Predict the 3D structure of the following.
Amino acid sequence: MEKMYNYINGELRTANSGHFLDVFEPATGKVYGQTPDSDETDVNEAIEAAQKAFESWSETSVDYRHRILSRIADEIEKKLDSLAAAESKDNGKPLSLAKKVDIPRAADNFRFFANAITQFSSETHEMIGLALNYTLREPLGVVAAISPWNLPLYLFSWKIAPALAAGNCVVAKPSEVTPYTAYLLSQICIDAGLPPGVLNILHGLGHKVGSALTKHKKIKAISFTGSTKVGQEIASIAAPAFKKVSLEMGGKNPNIIFADADYDRMLRTTLRSSFANQGQICLCGSRIFVESSIYDRFKKDFVTAAKALKVAKPEDPEAKLSAVVSETHMNKILDYIALAKEEGGVLLAGGHRASLSGKYADGWYIEPTIFEGLHYNCRVNQEEIFGPVVSITPFDSEEEVLKMANSTEYGLSATLWTQNLDRAHRMAKQIDAGIVWINTWLLRDLRTPFGGVKHSGVGREGGLNALRFFTEQKNICIKYN
Ligand code: NAD
């Protein structure tokens, strides 16, 4: 049984309650670990440690922070194999995916912000002959980072790295569903020489630890990634207390395919954008709109290719999909599959729990599932499912597909497939989304703004945006003699 601990003031500790929560291995459906069931008292201790550490961390040189964060990146890279195995065990994702995407990206996040802070600058505004204004960008103090289960270390580090680089101290809470790599990060930070209290990692339930953390008056900013429902709750707590918030929330992204698309590339990528990580990526394109003239061809090829995707145990190098994250989540996805049928959807592929044998017989696997015939306004096409379930819908004109694409309350990302440059620009401008990919998907440059509009997000992460979020501006005006 894997035992995990909180990381407070540089030490690994149990929760004050002494209680633990069970942690499940989705691939087998069995408990494999225990994570601290922390409460408000642990939150108070972590914030106190962070507040104390802030006095010195905020005064450290950019070069020092660069070196420490780079060391953390190095350590993550050195431990690629064991971290990937931990992530896959905890989350259920194929080991090959954790090795290729999740863990390298976590290292990249630390390295990127270790470098970015050395290039961060602020402005001066001269009033010629009269005065000089210069603007300082100062760290905020103690900030909270709260992350979800779908890309555990990847998203956790995406928040922590810029906050630390900018000179803040952090109390971070990973999802209680996938705490393992966040726990392993604690030891990495100790080994990398991160001073005690600069980063504190608290484990436990959202409504207990997460809520106490966001409410604490010493928390100056909250960087949250998760569901829109919890994001709304956090916003309602943060607003009257005037805390800064960055909210990355749900998505129901359109994947719009025109007849002039580079067909083979589009088909390959659409398989990924539909089913990668079992469809549990906020950027997955779960609503696929296909121009009528190629609809039948696309349907045939896409269904054949989806049926050929191997659903297998995470360690299988051929596995394209493995387990979804929890039994509760699996049942939620299966409920949406049932709802799609009630709403008049025609099942073209999948639609069932996939059964594996032996040790994996009780794991939480779902077949890649495709529906057609659903109205664009039905619940299945409007609500986030966050699983390997997509719907395909034909369209005849740009106006029609734009209306359908923009019809949800979400606006995170969109993908467009066309060779027509005019159309690509025209459509990209009109789509309600923070990120539009043209003839690609999930191609990320960490310098670019990342985030959504409408109910998908408030604020932008990425590049200098993140460093700006984690700093406060102070303008100083000096009058010339
Ligand atoms: P969730 O909202 O249930 O939980 C996210 C985190 O918030 C967890 O750590 C949880 O413990 C914590 N939490 C729960 N209740 C809380 C409360 N009252 N106060 C403070 N913290 C609380 O989300 P999830 O199920 O872990 O993740 C899936 C969701 O995340 C999906 O909606 C997905 O779209 C979204 N997501 C968005 C992005 C993005 O970049 N926009 C990226 C990944 C995932």
Remarks:
- The two ends are 71 Å apart (CA to CA).
- The chain has two domains: 2-249+456-479, 254-445.
- DSSP finds 15 helices and 21 strands in the chain.
- The mean pLDDT is 98.
